[in-house]
Amino acid sequence: MTVIGRREGDGPALPLGRYRARDGSAGARVRLDCARPHAACVVGKRGSGKSNTLAVLAEGLCGVAGAVPVVVDPMGAFRGLRGAGATVREPRVRADAIPPAEWPGLVGLDATTGSGALVAAAARATGTLAGMCDHVAGSDASPDTCRVAGTRLARAREWDVFDPAGLAAPTEPTVLDLAGVPERAANAVVRAVAAGLYERRVADEGPLPWLLVDEAHAFLGGAARPALDRLLTRGRAPGVSVVLATQRPDALPATAVSQADLLVAHRLTGRADTGAVAGARGAYVDGPVADRIPAGVGEALVFDDATERAHGVRVAERATPHGGGAPRLGTDGYE
Ligand SMILES: Nc1ncnc2c1ncn2[C@@H]1O[C@H](COP(=O)(O)OP(=O)(O)OP(=O)(O)O)[C@@H](O)[C@H]1O
What pTM value is reported for the model? Predict the structure, then answer.
């Protein structure tokens, strides 16, 4: 059986689907290596099957000893993973998981303004959001500066994602249910969890995590970005895998595409999109990449840097129910 993502050796592998011949017929079963850490990007148009692909990987990982899937679920589409043994959580994280210098940006303030500087100072002074609010209230800055900073922090409290006893690095299969959570707040959660997973593995503790991020574009432009970048560039050495799924390949930083060792391309819109995403990996196929990406829902061309090959695959249908229908990330009240 083909195992994508490794050149040789054995060890655990995740069921992915079946080979898809050029004429569209289904062939042998295909699995994806999970014996080593990977960084993967999953791209494709809306409705092309990206979430299903993430769910299939997460389901497989739920059954692998020593591996732990952590799914970032902005739309409530992965709640069904309960059926595979995952815990679905409305996540809370510690306020001090966000570096003080990033607090102004997180609450929509420019760090160079008085109110932005006050928010950063509050974060430096204390590790909790309640403490930050107190710090601002007791500050001798101008009333206007205190009012703006205080209002922003009060809104951040309404997000209800900060808690001194918050989650840092799940050690069991977990779905982070962020449906309806404001995008800035969801970024804070992803930032904290991505950093927590990395730091725990750097300390050589805990199982090997796979952070699976749906709608990744929402996190690549926000506070989660530095932590995701670190996982992409340095996560594999300590054993952290990351999978980013997005319908906006243009939102993927160049590092994401170049650092990934696996690229799963579902149906894309334009030839430009397709060529840009594949980049140098275009050499893995004969002829134009655009002609090789299958058009059917759930079908994909999987580029594997380990073998420098691309595989046409029909991804299996997820076994757990799709838990969608929930709202997308909410608004944060700042815009
Ligand atoms: N491999 C597959 N086999 C069978 N059905 C699939 C497969 N992949 C996706 N589907 C079905 O197609 C629909 C869209 O799939 P999915 O939600 O995974 O797409 P998506 O690319 O994540 O969409 P969006 O960009 O809106 O998040 C769903 O109803 C799903 O069940």
Answer: 0.94
Q: Are residues 67 and 174 in the same domain?
A: yes
Residue 122 lies in a domain: yes
Centre of ligand 1 from the C-alpha of residue 103, in Å? 36
154 and 218 both lie in a single domain: no
* Closest ligand 1 atom number to CA of residue 299: 1
Of the pLDDT bands very low, low, confident and very high (cuts 50, 70, 90), residue 272 is low
70 and 105 assigned to the same domain: no
Model confidence over 168-179: pLDDT tens digits? 899 999 999 999
Q: Tokens 């709640």 identify what position?
A: 79
Could you give the C-alpha distances from 119 to 126, 284, 332, in angstroms and in order? 11, 50, 17
193 inside domain? yes
Q: Does this complex have an ipTM over 0.85?
A: yes
Count of the separate structural domains present in the chain? 2
What's at 22, amino acid-wise? R
- Residue 245 Cα to ligand 1 middle (Å): 12
pLDDT of residue 141: 96
For a mutational test of ligand 1's pocket, the pick from 32, 52, 73, 243, i.e. the residue with the most ligand atoms closer than 8 A to its C-beta, is 52
Which residue is listed with tokens 């950093």? 195
